[in-house]
Amino acid sequence: MDSSALHVLIVDDSPEDRLIVRRLLTRSSPGAYIVTEVDRGGFALAACQSIRPDCVLLDHSLPDMDGLEVLVALRAESDVPVVVLTGAGNVARTSDRPPRDRLASLDKGTLTAERLSLTIQRAVADVQVSRTQAHDLALLTTMIDVIPVGVSVLDQELRFLQMNAAMATLLGYPAVTLRGQRFADLWPDMARALAPHCAQVLATSTPAGPYAVLAPRPNTGISPHNIWQASVQPLALPDMGTTHWLCVVIH
Question: Which residues, at least 6 apart from 35, have a Cβ–Cβ distance to it below 8 Å?
């Protein structure tokens, strides 16, 4: 068995449709796919736990569960790539999918071997990128958390993506509640001072600082102003596409 072959789980209650999909996969690309078939949503969930397929081809309508109900249940356990197969008159309700899920769909009536294979490959590649990003973020968090000064990772809108315990302490909130929030909403004086430097770093990919910033400590009401040392660094992680991030250090 070729270790590079993708294991595809076909979930469809129609034997005829399963046969068509299997033939499209196996005859057009011999050895490229290993195929397992089930005909119920419950069986699909069990199969994903036992065989851990590389991709799931999920019928939109099943006897025991709606296809998107299967997807929601599956996402509680796994990030396996899913391609929804729709029949005549059925449209995948992509608005009902789990948040941030990359859901591809194909019409059974227009399936071709090339289209099916390409969609599977793209779905698998998208999830692999997401897994790599999650790994990189976890590694980054582990690395910065031991640094005794405040370190945060911001996106281009100056929203917090990651921060260490020292930065969370400065801001006065648990780190988990800070992710996705705007720097300007939590520490407006510091954000105003940082904004031009962040724009410069994003435009030139050249570090800025360290420099002194006069700003009150956040969440302390009328406390006196403090002089902080701050620097901004460009940050690029593997497989993050064209996204540019910033690493901001404050102490």
Answer: 7, 8, 10, 22, 25, 26
Looking at the structure of the chain, the number of domains it has is 2
Beta strands in the chain (DSSP E): 6-11, 33-38, 55-59, 82-86, 104-107, 150-154, 160-163, 208-216, 225-235, 245-250
In whole angstroms, give the CA distance from residue 11 to residue 22: 11
Find the distance separating the first CA and the last CA of the chain, reported in whole Å.
56
Q: What range does the domain containing 226 cover?
A: 145-250
Tokens read off for 162: 């990651």
- Rounded to an integer, what distance in angstroms lies between the CA atom of residue 85 and that of residue 27? 19
The answer, yes or no, to whether residue 92 has pLDDT greater than 90, is no
Cα–Cα distances in angstroms (integers) from residue 126 to residues 12, 158, 223, 236, 247, in the given order: 24, 25, 48, 19, 25
Contact 72, 100 (CB under 8 A): no
- What is this structure's pTM? 0.60
- Determine, yes or no, domain membership for 139: no
What three-state secondary structure class fits 72? helix
Check residue 98 and give left, alpha or beta (phi > 0: left; psi -120 to 50: alpha): beta
Angle at the Cα of 227 (from 221 to 233), degrees rounded to 5?
A: 110
User: Do 187 and 235 belong together in one domain?
Assistant: yes
Report the b/e string of 35-66 with b at 16+ CB within 10 A: bbbbbbbebbbebbeeeebbbbbbbbebeebe
pLDDT at position 99 is 43
Greater pLDDT, 220 or 212:
212
Phi, psi of 235 (to 5 degrees): -135, 125
Looking up residue 46, the CATH number of its domain turns out to be 3.40.50.2300
Q: 11 near 84, Cβ under 8 Å? A: no
